[in-house]
TrEMBL record:
Sequence similarity: Belongs to the ketol-acid reductoisomerase family.
Example of a GO biological process term: L-valine biosynthetic process
Protein name as it appears in the record: Ketol-acid reductoisomerase (NADP(+))
Assigned EC number: 1.1.1.86
Keyword annotations: Amino-acid biosynthesis, Branched-chain amino acid biosynthesis, Isomerase, Magnesium, Metal-binding, NADP, Oxidoreductase
Cellular component, GO annotation: cytosol
Organism from which the protein derives: Frateuria terrea
Residues annotated to bind NADP(+): Y19, G20, S21, Q22, R42, S47, G128
Annotated residues for binding of Mg(2+) 2: D185, E221, E225
């Protein structure tokens, strides 16, 4: 009989910095898994009160870091370098673990962690709300995990213990490295999930409206109904989507899809990936952030001002099932 390896996080304290989408889910799950958790948050911010109301010990980040065997950095990515410099680097204990849910700052050198600590990644493949709700059902959301730096000799065991603590071990743990996690995450959101999908939708809307069709009908066809298709992808891939659409829709898919998204599109996807891999995108985004986000704000405003947004808002107001109940908290980030 083999005895299970000891849990390197047992009887230690974890500091979770951030109580947003991921932070809240991780903190609640770790606590329910028997870990001692302290939240490191900005005094006076909305998270401070919420975490306290949900029964957590709360301190300013630097205080939370002191004495923690593991520090999970779950604030927005662009806020992490300053947080590392000011609250983590001066206070994290030698041999402790610094944990990220996305590899951006370490991979692109925005955080150069002290050499005497472990640096690991545990990235759930789902939004925080699902990480929590699956855990509460006795299940879990699959997680990627990786080790960037192993000072203690137990970095991998710590990453896996943390992934177990948030429920990922009940589902699936996939080992990766910071580079693969970072580059694939950025590519997915840029080329397909956010960038690709929104351009496909708005260009489809413009094509119909410019050809004289009513914007309300165009909205239903290219944006509203996308959810039905994406849900089928999510539940059963291309197979289920094809099973649940008409023969006519299938034939149109086979002959017209590749006319719209063609090998030229794929070449441009490769160019997007090249910019991610050689650091061009990261350099631009960091410079944009440092400049106070002028292009980000302009491009965002252009999306918000697109005619599809106006017609969409009016139509969604007539879909009562979409209106959140008054007591529901604001939605959190999903990618
Ligand atoms: P959120 O935007 O939800 O984080 C908000 C939290 O961070 C709040 O508690 C906020 O506190 C705190 N915060 C914001 N700015 C600062 C700051 N300058 N200093 C200290 N605390 C701050 O983040 P996510 O959960 O979306 O992302 C966290 C990490 O997880 C990121 O690395 C992200 O890439 C990764 N990730 C996210 C996923 C997701 O589903 N969203 C999926 C997988 C990984 P306050 O209330 O005081 O403002
Ligand atoms: Mg867009
Ligand atoms: Mg991302």
């Amino acid at each position: 009989m083999t005895t299970p390896a000891p849990n390197p996080l047992a009887h230690t304290r974890a500091a979770v910095l951030g109580y947003g989408s991921q932070g809240r889910a991780h903190a609640l799950n770790l606590r329910d898994s028997g870990h001692e958790v302290v939240l490191g948050l900005r005094k006076g911010g909305p998270s401070w009160q919420r975490a306290q109301a949900e029964g957590f010990a709360v301190a300013e980040p630097a205080e939370a870091v002191k004495g923690a065997a593991l520090v999970a950095v779950l604030t927005p990515d662009m806020a992490q370098p300053a947080l590392y410099r000011e609250a983590i680097a001066p206070h994290i204990a030698p041999g402790a673990a610094l944990l990220f849910a996305h590899g951006f700052n370490v991979h692109y050198g925005q955080i150069e962690p002290r050499k005497d600590i472990d640096v690991v990644l545990v990235a759930p493949k789902g939004p925080g709300a699902l990480v929590r709700s699956e855990y509460a059902r006795g299940r879990g959301v699959p997680c990627l995990w990786a080790v960037h730096q192993d000072a203690s000799g137990a970095a991998a065991a710590k990453a896996r213990a943390y992934a177990d603590g948030i429920g990922g071990g009940r589902a699936l743990l996939i080992q990766t490295d910071f580079r693969e996690e970072t580059e694939t995450d950025l590519f997915g959101e840029q080329a397909v999930l956010c960038g690709g999908a929104s351009e496909l939708v708005t260009k489809g809307f413009e094509t119909l409206v410019e050809a004289g069709y009513q914007p309300e009908i165009a909205y239903y066809e290219v944006m509203h109904e996308l959810k039905l298709i994406v849900d089928l992808f999510y539940e059963g891939g291309l197979t289920k989507m094809l099973e649940f659409v008409s023969e006519t829709a299938q034939y149109g898919d086979y002959v017209s899809g590749p006319r719209v998204v063609d090998t030229g599109t794929k070449e441009r996807m490769r160019a997007v990936l090249d910019d991610i891999r050689d650091g061009t995108f990261a350099r631009q985004w960091i410079a944009e952030h440092q400049a106070g986000l002028p292009n980000y704000r302009r491009l965002k405003q252009a999306d918000l001002d697109h005619p599809i947004e106006k017609v969409g808002a009016a139509l969604r107001a007539r879909m009562p099932w979409l209106q959140p109940a008054k007591e529901e908290p604001a939605p959190l980030k999903v990618v």
